[in-house]
Amino acid sequence: MEEKPVPVFVSAHARYNVPGRIVTLGAYLGTAQLLESAGALRVLERDEAADDYRVGGAGDAAQLRRDVAWTKLIAALNQGRKWALRRLAAHLDTMLADAIAVAVVPAHDPFVTDFPVRLLAQAVASIDGKERVDASGCLVRHTKIRRIVWGGPSYRSLHRQTITVQNAELVRGRNVLLLDDVARSGASLRACRELLLEVGATNVQAVALGRVAAP
Question: Which domains are present in the chain?
Fold first, then answer.
């Protein structure tokens, strides 16, 4: 009898095992939102009657602090800060199952290969005793596209046309964590998930560290 593969996330974080959806681990605030939120928190810290300041109540203030801290952590990762890489790798390690493959959405430019989220995936895959597979090089961008943050288009067919799968044996028959830093349209994650399934991955859970918060 064939052994059933383990899920991507351990039971304590089973809410993230939703293969048909993109899941996100927190909010990602844009520059204006981050400045506004930081200002709101400074007001709250000065005002002992925090309920008088309507970000919301105390619960909303706590969530705002989490959103600001998570945004800064992702930004630090993308700035190449090693402490952020270590902290995120340790955080993900506690959430993820053993013996999974870890893949990433490739950068917009084929010549950019050691980008921060790939280094994070490699760190997560290389943790001793976990038997995870580094599949961070499986999805390869062969044609440059314009970055969405610079106004470039992002739709699933564009990503499928500009990304190929290499070393498919690393994901074939495995549960795969497909990782990206920030989800905006989600098109790249959906396209990459389809490509991995087409080459034989058993299950692909698409995960973005942050989701772009509505303004």
Answer: 11-25+98-212 (3.40.50)
